[in-house]
Amino acid sequence: MSQSKRAAARRASAGANGDYRSTSITIHDVAKAAGVATSTVSRALSGDGRVADATRRHVIEVADGLGYRPSRSARALRGAQTRTLGFLGPDFTNIMSLTHLQAAVRIAFERGYTLFVCDTQGQSDILAAQVERLVEHRVDGILFGRGIIMMTAEVERMLARSGIPLEPDVELSAEADYEGTRPFNPYLERAEIERGASMVAYRHLFALGHRKIAYFARPISMRTVMGDTRRATLREAVAQAELPEEALVEVLAVNPEDCIAEVQNLAGLADPPTAIVCGNGLLTTGILRGIYRAGWRIPDDVSLLTFGDSPWHMAQHPPVAVIHHDYAAAARRALDRLIARAEHAEEIPNPPRRPAEFLPRGSLGPPRAR
Length: 370
Description:
Low-confidence stretches: 1-23, 71-78
Oligomer: single chain
Number of strands: 12
Radius of gyration: 25 Å
Structural class: alpha/beta
Strand content: 5-15%
Largest sheet: 6 strands, mixed
Shape: elongated
Helix content: 40-55%
Mean pLDDT: 85
């Protein structure tokens, strides 16, 4: 008998004799002995109606045999709140995700909740492990961070079947079945509330005299409604300004590192763009590094406009012009809605969203004559 099997046997024997400290038996032990996922154990013990009766009886029997007595989550199993919320951060290298998180932590604290913070780092396996742990702990709700999550069918099913309130309250399928990953950004409303500010920013660029603009975005496999709307808005602005199609140069980049070489390539053109628009805040740092390596100066050689805002943008020299979102207000709105659903409120608050704002800082200037 292997060491792990002997350990399991000792735990089972101790549980049967009633002299084993139940806190040493974990939900993972129950899942392994029952031959099911830990999320299934959690749902079965919490009375989730989507677990088959036969499966629930089997899990309970195994848990009793091992002497498993959840303590930390006992309140949740009785139907009470845990006063905990999950935060799924897409990638904290994106400064906007951190800004949103800081506001969420503070507001959750004010409401008497603790936030379990998960940095998925853009990795589907990390995402799956963290979601499973949030489900296991029976958090009262899950808040999505700002940015793109590479969703898998496994995670989508797990979230849909958990019954845990989500914010934004998006539709996920308990029967999701697809290969690989799909880009997932639940903040669809931002695509429309920033269109007006984006148009003001683009017209400002044209008024300064820019006639060739490079637009940096993620590749098609990583684009969402947000990314498509931003690109379409810029194309519309170019058409309204009666500029030729070649006035817009689209550059695709997966991560900030890709942007460094792409900017240097642009700088080497006989007729380089005089302005850069960063369509995804995650890419901003790479674009800045590429500009400095190319020997360009902002805004003398190239102007820069990006989406999202933070103290980091203001600390640059010169400060970076942005399409600004009030992430603190957005976090408060999201948590008010999430907590209302977690507490089974009769009405879910739906305050109006604050529109985005164009902040024309020092990174924008007229193009230098070449």
